[in-house]
Amino acid sequence: MRVSARVFFSMPSRTQNKRKGTLRFHLVTLFREACEPYLTTSILGRAQREKKIKITYHSPRDFVDNRWGKVDERPYGGGPGMVMMALPVVKAARKALARRLSSRAKPRIAIIWFTPEGKLFTNKEADALATYDDLVLVAGRYEGIDERAASLLRTLAPVKKYSLGPYTLTGGELPALVLVDAVTRRLPGVLGKDASVEERRISSHKVYTRPEVIVWEGKKYRVPKVLTTGNHARIDAWRTSR
User: Fold this and answer.
1) What is residue 19's predicted lDDT score, i.e. its pLDDT?
2) Residue 206's CB: how many other CB atoms inside 10 A?
3) Cα–Cα distance measured from residue 88 to residue 176, given in angstroms and rounded to the nearest whole number
4) Beta partners for residue 216, in sequence order
5) pLDDT of residue 16
6) Quick one: which of 86, 67, 66, 68 has its CA closest to 76?
7) What does the alpha-carbon distance between residue 115 and residue 235 come to, in Å, rounded to a whole number?
8) 10, 24, 62, 176: which one has the fewest Cβ atoms less than 10 Å from its Cβ?
9) CA nearest 203: which of 173, 157, 239?
10) How far is CA 41 from CA 21, 25, 44, 54, in A?
């Protein structure tokens, strides 16, 4: 389902013209099973098969020394819920980047930290992230992650803090999926042609298809007449006025 706003560009972005190679997403998450079905389906699945993107998963549970795989503790200062410990998260991110950090090619890397007070994630931010080589997405859970993890992660690569909007989710997996989707569809060849990216063409949040007339409970619902004229100037004007 399309969720993009009416933002129009007459020319392709630099990302579409210059991006080369595979973009690697490294998901630091406790729940790989919550991410994998979506990321292996449809356009994102094809992007992986065609090596436009690569997705790896790294669980903080693999970096604790207790037999239960416990990664959370009670918050200092009191309060409800539990907080994810810093070191398992940081160690998972370091493992994800181990080979890349030692590469002579010096890849462009960023670590993504999802937080309500972060910068609002937009199409412009997605375009910027599409120029990176590696993105580590840290998906928190419970009451959040020990804030010291963000400081420690900066010793590995720059940390970018994002928010998807003024609401609260159970975990960081959904924001991570949104970011992977929004960034991947901007890569050359992922959507087939650059014009398929709605923000780079004249588009509208209202779309129609066949049949021209739908009859439902005795009432007719028609496609706007202008869309059937073949007059592209009038159609573009209609789309930009919606």
Assistant:
1) 62
2) 11
3) 19
4) 219
5) 47
6) 86
7) 41
8) 10
9) 239
10) 21, 16, 6, 14
- Please, what is the end-to-end C-alpha distance for the chain in angstroms? 18
Question: Phi then psi for 214, rounded to 5 degrees?
Answer: -110, 130
Q: Which residues contact 14 (CB under 8 A, 6 or more apart)?
A: 131
Confidence of residue 15 (pLDDT cuts 50, 70, 90): very low
What pTM did the predictor assign?
Answer: 0.83
- Residue ranges of alpha helices (H) inside 52-85 are none
Cα separation, 133 vs 141, in Å, equals 26
Tens-place pLDDT, residues 86-96? 999 999 999 99
Strand, helix or coil at 137? strand
Measured distance CA(176)–CA(154) in Å, rounded? 19
Please tell me the distance from the alpha carbon of residue 43 to that of residue 177, in angstroms, as a whole number: 13
CA–CA separation, 6 and 17 (whole Å): 23
59 vs 37: CA distance, rounded Å: 17
Q: Check residue 227 and give its pLDDT.
A: 87
In 3D, which of 110, 140, 106 has the Cα closest to residue 126?
Answer: 110
User: Is 50 exceeded by the pLDDT of residue 3?
Assistant: no
**Cα dist. 144→29, 92, 134, 229, 230 in Å?**
12, 16, 24, 54, 53
Phi/psi at 80 (5° precision): -75, 165
> What's CA 160's distance to the chain center, in Å?
13
Structure token pair of residue 11: 């020319």
